Amino acid sequence: TVAQSRRFANLTGKTAIVVQDAPGFAVNRFFVPWLNEAVRLLDEGVADIPTIDAAAKKAFRIGMGPFLLMNVTGVPIAYHSTGTLGDELGPFYASAPGLEAQFEKGQNWPVDGEADEAKFQAVADRLQGVVFLVAGQILDEGVASMTDVDIGAKVGLRWARGPFEMMNLLGIDRVYGLVKPIVDGWDDLAMPASIQAQRDAGQNWDIRYVTREDHGGVAYLTLNRPEAMNALNETVVGQLAEVFDAADADPSVKSIVIAGAGKAFIAGADIGYFIKNIKNNQIDKTVAFTAYGQELLKRIDNSPKLVIARMDGLALGGGAEIALCADTIVATPQATMGFPETGIGIYPGLGGTQRTARYVGPELAKYLVFTGRVLGAEDARRIGLVEYVVDPGELDGFIQELAASGKAVTKASRGPVELGGDWLKIKDWFGAKNVGAMIDGSARNDPDPLKAKTAKTIVYKAPLAVRLANRIIDEGYPLPLEEGLQKELDHLEEIFSTEDALEGLTSLGRKRPEYKGK
User: Fold this and answer.
1) Tens digit of each residue's pLDDT (9 = 90 or more) over 109-168
2) Which parts of 127-217 are beta strand (E)?
3) Cα-atom radius of gyration of the chain, to the nearest Å?
4) Which are the catalytic amino acids?
5) DSSP readout, 325-360?
6) Please, what's the b/e burial string for 171-199 (b: 16 or more CB within 10 A of its CB; e: otherwise)?
7) pTM
């Protein structure tokens, strides 16, 4: 039933979390007390409404404070929610007097006015303390996992961070200090055992962003950061390595499936990490991170077990590179893949220039890397990047049968793909004789409209990144894969040191970057 419910959520474009049948489930269990505590702060005269809303927005990195949010969703909703939780869980959860009074007035909260920043910390401490307290209770009671609580906050409430992520940022001693005065103020509360244990151990929470579930000899490894489109960072890659290596070494596992939660497979790397390293003059960290990622991808590539990429959604940059390490890719028609790196000032560094060239030829690899074109699943299958395209409703059953049969078509077994249509022309344009005109933009005036359009697309990419990618593909393609991958690493410091890299990475989502070739 749980598996079918998850499948239904996926088919309807929703992000599912698993919770026990408990009052408030996972999200309302901490969110409603957060609203209630805001009213208590008002009742106690700690701060006025504009101050509480502004302090909450800053502390939780959200766009709407608790009082404005209650106005939008309805004060009666907040009142009845606190009443229900109070009846089920005790006085701490019961409606604050001010909330009951506002409900009886039948009016919205007056939210206008100037905020007093001197009171921000006092407000933030109380609101965070309540959220952390309840998150600890949720964990103690087995209502939901840390990962699902955080996903609920980030996807359901649009908070920048989940409660456990916020606790890790503040440190467990600070968290304990925020929760204790709240616990001491209520007879029906006690310090959550989970928080006490973490404080005694002096450790942050071990939040799992990559999970494993085994079904009939198949290990499903799921990247579980749907709010960030499963973007790769040091923690995620480290956990993927840990979970993959364990599954690879487990004799009961015959096949391994790599999947992404939510609407993406993996939408690339965490761009903020690259920007931070450039600004802090720590490009060596980016190089080390990429080298570590390459080693993991080699292990995936070389696993004796059948590795399947379950691609239902975006697979961009590092996501496409991880998928290409699998023996076979099973995609849905909604899946897309591509290499957008040259559009943000860099080039693919996790094998995108090398494995792509080996699977579709260096010419089409150059086309994909230079243009950043995002392919639909059917186009990706036509040129040899994807092996299977399956209806979403049949995806998991198909994968399970494929894994059990041991007869999957793989990149190693299928042989070359016969190209047709425009792909033959594109292959010629990016061949050794013609690729120069595509890179320098002189093909923009070609009478073939598709060729001219393709050349114009490349003109807007980072010129240094395009030229380096061209060189890396040319030099790496004739070599063994291991040596070709090293070519990507050899030029990472060079590309991330350019002005164009910083311009492209920081412009993403804001404006078209202005590249200077420096």
Assistant:
1) 999 999 999 999 999 999 999 999 999 999 999 999 999 999 999 999 999 999 999 999
2) 210-215
3) 26
4) 321, 341
5) HSSEEEE-TT-EEE--GGGGT----SSTTTHHHHHH
6) ebeebbebbeebbeeeeebebbebbbebb
7) 0.92
